[in-house]
Amino acid sequence: MKDTPIPYDIVQKVVKKSNLPSIGKASIREVKRLINEIEEASGKKFIRMEMGIPGLPSVQIGLDAQKEALDNGVSAIYPDIDGIPSLKYEMARFCKSFMDIDVQPASCIPTVGSMQAGFATFLTFQHLHKERDTTLFIDPGFPVQKQQHRILGAKFETFDVYEFRGEKLKDKLESYLSKGNIHSIIYSNPNNPSWICFTEKELKIIGDLANKYDVIVIEDLAYFGMDFRKDISTPGKPPYQVTAAKYTDNYVLFISSSKAFSYAGERLGVMVISEKLFKGQYPNLKQYFGTDNLGHAMVYGAVYALSSGTSHSAQYAMAAILKACNDGDYNLVEGMVEYRDKANAMKKMFTDNGFKIVYDKDEDQPLSDGFYFTISYPGFSGEELLAELLYYGISAISLAITGSQRLEGLRACVSLIQKEEFPELERRLKIFAENHPLQ
Length: 439
What we know:
Blueprint: H1 8-18, H2 28-42, H3 60-71, H4 85-99, E1 108-111, H5 113-125, E2 134-139, H6 143-152, E3 155-160, H7 168-177, E4 182-188, H8 200-213, E5 216-221, E6 251-256, E7 269-273, H9 275-278, H10 286-289, H11 294-306, H12 312-326, H13 337-352, E8 356-357, E9 361-362, E10 365-366, E11 372-376, H14 382-389, E12 397-398, E13 410-413, H15 422-435
Parallel strand pairs: 2-3, 2-4, 4-5, 5-6
Antiparallel strand pairs: 1-7, 6-7, 8-11, 9-10, 11-13, 12-13
Helix pairs in contact: 1-2, 3-12, 4-12, 5-6, 5-11, 7-8
């Protein structure tokens, strides 16, 4: 037993008391609770990398607009389920300005974060067809989306994209789509947890196959604009946020206020549905939603049943932020570059002390620095590494819970780490390396 930054016996006692059968298979919230308990018992602060919580102040433009809306009395009024007109209009503009795609304001639906957008979408899509009942996840991915499927009793299949980048993606996807049971494909871009970013070639493959097999692409854009290798911040001019929506009309996008605008506390996102889908007719929907129109079923069936809309005042906040981006008055990317800079510095600390970056490339290009990165240490599985790092006051989550096949890895989030903590992180990593020398 070696000296560690967090006393060994305290960690052992708290872990045993937690009754978690495996720390490496614990959910994000279970890991968070465990770290809180170790901090309380030891009196020592962890380097917290387990939660994907925004770590920057909210955009002031949004705060000012929300305060004005509250002063005008909107807190006493139910918002329309399909959202306030200004938010719908500015989101449609935003999609054109920063993605170069044409969408209608009517099909931009505010939701209680991307979480509710996902739940409403999965709930609706499992009833689109009698003969197709399965979602295909391009993993690794956000664990809660699979939990939502389990709650709904909805079927899903999954594969880890690590070995299937570039042209290899086409054959892999087709091996699933050709079976005829898939109604939709879902992925995040940039990706939570690996931070891979699909290339234009890969997104064209996804879009082309969506057209060929008449499946819907669900693109989770929670980290919009955060592939910092390209500055997409100038409205109406390339480069744009890359998207499969350039190659297919079968798409639903989730655009969140949480990360790009640090507006996570208000739980606001927007579901953007292509015009083709929004107006689409699916006879199987009628027995569940009383209509065969997808847009009507989504808004007045799923979203209505789940929450009757989302925060009235926060919609004014997001509308104002989007307008400022569209008008060129607010630089979307400049507001988030701190994540890039922290990731760059933290990845170097880990690799200088023997750690490896698990997901390290997009095809032949080095991965962007951003909100997340993935790490491993020779000789450890991900579960073992997560458990061992507890003694060093460093937290993360295992890739095993994300659908990744890289079971040696962990996901680390940079958002809550302050630069003043860097020296302590480096000190703890050096102790870890000394206690676990590499051959």
